[in-house]
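Same chain as my last thread, 192 residues:
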Amino acid sequence: MKLAVFTLSLLLAAGSALRAEDKPADLKVGDKAPAFSAKDDTGKTWKSSDVVGKKIVVVYFYPADLTGGCTKQACGFRDDMKKLKEKGVVVVGVSGDSVRNHQLFKKVHELNFALLADEDGKVAKAFGVPVRKGKKSIKRKIDGKEETLTRGVTASRWTYVINRNGEIAFKNTKVNAAGDSKAIMKVVATLK
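reply #2:
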């Protein structure tokens, strides 16, 4: 009987630990940024440890490739990329879309920064970004061919800036997609 109670206690404790791990983080300005990695639009693993602490890193989460607001947001960063790079900034977009979707998105809009495939929402959760489960598909005509883009999860539109000390310097949970890159340029101008 004691063994059964002990085993049940262990199982309940393990279940609680799993649920705690599944909870999204609650990052605040000044907190250390989480380390993360994911496949980028080239299919290679992009690691935050390669840039955090060396550059200012903008990590922006968005719902889906090749959709209205997300396209405006990505094109804003594309258009401001030269100015951002001059200030030592690396931009990375993160969504639940696949590597293939990201390749199409970059091709159609000539995007000049990395897009990470966070199909299970692990990176989003590390930053506390809400994600909705379920596969969503959209169809788009690209180079005269109909493509079906399917994503694993849909992340909310949030943007973070990580300073050169590896800390969260800015967090925006109410992002204006079209104006995000301009807002980030103002934030970056205040960082040393």
